[in-house]
Amino acid sequence: MVMKMIQTNKICYKDSPLGIIPKEWEVKRLGDLGAFSKGKGVPKDKIIDNGYKCLTYGDIYTKYDIVMKNVKSFIDAGTAEESQEIQKGDILFTGSGETLEDIGKAIVYLDEEKGYAGGDIIIFKNSEPINSLWLSYFLNSSTANSQKYKMGQGHSVVHIYSSQLEKLKILLPPLPEQQKIAEILSLWYEAIEKQTQLIAQLETRKRGLMQQLLTGKKRLKGFSGVWRKFHLGSLGVTYCGLTGKGKNDFGEGKPYIPYLNIFNHPKINVNLFEYVKINPIENQNKVRYGDIFFTVSSETPNEVGMASVLLDDIDELYLNSFCFGFRLHDFTKLFPEFACYYLRSDAFRCEIYKLSQGATRYNLSKNSLMKLILLLPSINEQTALANILSSADNEIDLSKQKLAGLKEQKKGLMQQLLTGKKRIKLL
Predict the structure, then answer these.
(1) Measured distance CA(136)–CA(236) in Å, rounded
(2) Helix %, strand %, coil % of the chain (to 5)
């Protein structure tokens, strides 16, 4: 290939199989930089509380991003003998996933002690002078991912193999520049990690507040009245969601609240509506501010009967077919802003759990739900409690916005630094 040099702002660039790159950089195949091996299956029942560090396929997806450090999964000596050893600096790839975007996620193992890799993990050990942390960043960049997506094979489960990863083209800066890039990106990685930990702490604190405040174990200053008992059914009436709809009716028309909006959010998210055609002569139930929605079935008993409350005024809005609505007679006994916390509290969820019925799929009887007893403070106290928990939510939301900003900054930096579009001054 003829290399064409380009001068830009006193920095010389050249053509390459991966586009225009700095003249000092190289493009190499990953297979030319080291060797691959395969992890060996580690059954879940072999994971113990202490022993030899172990990484499973699921760990890579659920516990780590770019860096694998302070591993908390362990196996005993016998299982270790049958597993594939890994060392500090090794890169681990996931060998399969449900979508193209899932395959080939790469992380670098940075614990000092050796570990062991489970099945469906592809291990790369570099033999050339390479900064492994830099390589892990590059292998998760858009430049590498776009290549991996083309390598995926399969439909319901997508696979990628070491024979394909060997052909992955790597943009290779000089080692000092690799090290500097890794240092800079790690600053953002550490900031993201700290922000993630802060959010977890805030969410834990909120759960603690809910356990104390929503059961009356801890009372707010100025409130001392006795909490009153009410059957849920005495506070309002139920209604059903959409009826008589086929798949051709969905995708356009009027907004409706989908199942997952209710399942995932104690307050209905107005940015997550879907759409359905509604004929003017149809008799469909419209929802309104203060309505409470319940899911009626789930794959596990602890996920059935999730509740969500609409806290916005929407002119015309409907409810999906797989949930039912509950409309309060008035707001003198149950305040909607309080209900969204109370109905997701551990105490209330525990009562719902007792009502779940089924084997492979669990269902909730509407009649049984309406017989549940709620222990409620006065509306004034409900309002005060809702304000405190809402403030906790706002703090969590702001922290999540900051986290999203940090992730976007890291993504932009990766795109700039790992392609050579932005260069670093080396001391």
Answers:
(1) 56
(2) 35, 25, 40
Judge contact between 314 and 270, C-beta under 8 A. Answer: yes
Residue 73: burial class (beta carbons within 10 Å; 0-12, 13-18, 19+): buried
Tell me the angle at which helices 175-213 and 132-139 cross, rounded to the nearest 10 degrees: 70
Which ranges constitute the DSSP H helices of 319-419? 336-342, 346-355, 366-370, 379-417
Please, what are the domains in the chain?
A: 30-172 (3.90.220.20), 228-376 (3.90.220.20)
Report the predicted TM-score, pTM, of the whole model to 2 decimal places. 0.82
CA proximity to 366, closest of 315, 280, 292? 292
Task: Report how far residue 171's alpha carbon sits from residue 26's, in angstroms, rounded to the nearest whole number.
Answer: 6
Alpha helices in 152-227 (DSSP H): 162-165, 175-213
H and E: helices and strands count for the chain: 11, 28
DSSP SS3 for 392:
helix
Q: Which residues pair with 153 in a beta bridge?
A: 159
* Res 2: pLDDT: 38
Residue 386 and residue 339: Cα distance in Å, rounded? 8
pLDDT per residue as tens digits for the range 82-107: 888 999 999 999 888 777 777 888 99
Q: Which residues of the chain have pLDDT under 50?
A: 1-8
